[in-house]
Amino acid sequence: MVNIERGVIGDVVREVPEFRIKYKDVFSLQNLYVMMHELLLEEGWLGFEGVEDNEGHTDLETLYSENVFQKGIHSGGKEIWVWWRAKKNYEGRASQYFLLTLDLDWHVVLSQEREILHQGKKMKTQWGELEMFFKPRIISDLGHKWEHNWFLKHVKHTYEHRLMESYIEKMQKDLWRDVYRIQSKVKAYLNLKTWMPTPEPFHPKLTGYEEQF
Predict the structure, then answer these.
(1) What is the per-residue pLDDT for 124?
(2) Within 10 A of 77 (CB to CB), how many other CB atoms are there?
(3) Structural domain boundaries, residue 140
(4) What's the CA gap between 41 and 39, in Å, rounded?
């Protein structure tokens, strides 16, 4: 049993290997933050209390922690931790039994405010080291309705590992592709190398300088 988020209880039936991104350079954390919200919404990921519209990300963030260090201590700058927790219905269809989840953790270290000249204008940015961790999972038996049923609890294992085995494998492969696609789009946004062909931008490309929010 696992308490997924905001009272959602179920079992982790499959986990997808973790994806990571590491970046060290000048960037706009605020612009990246906004872009990630748009990207997750475009890919169908919502917060655990959200609805399927632009308000669906009001509850994505479960942690924002910021520490400021003086120079000489950890090289100075800010350390920031951000936790996002999202859910998605497989193929857009709500299920009473299965749910896809994504834990997205941000970790920024050595973050310092910098002002650069871009296209003849001064822009406020950050310089630092950014790591992002993507942890996808497939959750089964939501609310433990089968686990608490005198009959269904005896057939739960057979249902998941025999009757639904191929379906779960397909979900796992599709979930891997979905999160890999998100990782690739973020890498393209940050101009990191990726083995996945980059399609036409899903919105006008921002490198963190063209627009300040």
Answers:
(1) 76
(2) 22
(3) 11-190
(4) 5
In a domain, 211, yes or no: no
Number of structural domains, the chain?
1
Closest CA to 179 of 160, 196, 165, 200: 196
Model confidence over 53-67: pLDDT tens digits? 555 456 788 888 888
Is residue 115 a part of any domain in this protein? yes
| Residue 197: inside a domain | no
Predicted TM-score (pTM) of this structure:
0.80
> Partners of 113 in the beta sheet?
126
Q: Does residue 210 fall inside a structural domain?
A: no
Which single residue is written with the structure tokens 């290997």?
Answer: 17
